[in-house]
């Protein structure tokens, strides 16, 4: 029979900062001879590959591991006997997203790809009110997340005030979008105003 690597799940979608476990399976046929086993997990992102974890003939090769994954990625050795090459990554970053190659060499060679998507909800919205002139106020909302969100402003009658707002963003070193939206206008003092971070790809919104 042909030596075949299989993946029980092809797509993993995880929250930024959480942990992920990705798996590929291979035939062991009896008890595993670790000295014959090679497992390679590699990330491919924007045409570039990074070595995530390598086990060659039963021995780990930490020196070949890409620095982005040092201390964060490992293969669960206890599962190898069962023909499961499980890659565990902790504190997932935005840059961990991409395709992952799982290559197994054990009395035959085969490989499969899985995909990791990372999202970061705009959970925490920081708000601030600043007085511009006597009757004009600036309302500020700021939050971080991924992918890029749109910011909408509205009053409690659900009337859109977005045309009065100026929204800017920058990328943080973690690959998150830091979005600041400032609404400047003459408010009705008896009304409440809210800003909404709408993330189309996540299909979710956060309001403040």
From TrEMBL:
<dbReference type="InterPro" id="IPR051713">
    <property type="entry name" value="T-cell_Activation_Regulation"/>
</dbReference>
<dbReference type="InterPro" id="IPR053896">
    <property type="entry name" value="BTN3A2-like_Ig-C"/>
</dbReference>
<keyword id="KW-0675">Receptor</keyword>
<protein>
    <submittedName>
        <fullName>PD1L2 protein</fullName>
    </submittedName>
</protein>
<dbReference type="GO" id="GO:0071222">
    <property type="term" value="P:cellular response to lipopolysaccharide"/>
</dbReference>
<dbReference type="Pfam" id="PF22705">
    <property type="entry name" value="C2-set_3"/>
</dbReference>
<keyword id="KW-1003">Cell membrane</keyword>
<keyword id="KW-0325">Glycoprotein</keyword>
<keyword id="KW-0393">Immunoglobulin domain</keyword>
<dbReference type="InterPro" id="IPR036179">
    <property type="entry name" value="Ig-like_dom_sf"/>
</dbReference>
<keyword id="KW-1133">Transmembrane helix</keyword>
<dbReference type="GO" id="GO:0042102">
    <property type="term" value="P:positive regulation of T cell proliferation"/>
</dbReference>
<dbReference type="GO" id="GO:0006955">
    <property type="term" value="P:immune response"/>
</dbReference>
<keyword id="KW-1015">Disulfide bond</keyword>
<feature type="domain" description="Ig-like">
    <location>
        <begin position="17"/>
        <end position="115"/>
    </location>
</feature>
<keyword id="KW-0472">Membrane</keyword>
<dbReference type="GO" id="GO:0042130">
    <property type="term" value="P:negative regulation of T cell proliferation"/>
</dbReference>
<dbReference type="InterPro" id="IPR007110">
    <property type="entry name" value="Ig-like_dom"/>
</dbReference>
<dbReference type="GO" id="GO:0009897">
    <property type="term" value="C:external side of plasma membrane"/>
</dbReference>
<dbReference type="GO" id="GO:0007166">
    <property type="term" value="P:cell surface receptor signaling pathway"/>
</dbReference>
<keyword id="KW-0732">Signal</keyword>
<dbReference type="GO" id="GO:0031295">
    <property type="term" value="P:T cell costimulation"/>
</dbReference>
<dbReference type="InterPro" id="IPR013783">
    <property type="entry name" value="Ig-like_fold"/>
</dbReference>
<dbReference type="InterPro" id="IPR003599">
    <property type="entry name" value="Ig_sub"/>
</dbReference>
<keyword id="KW-0812">Transmembrane</keyword>
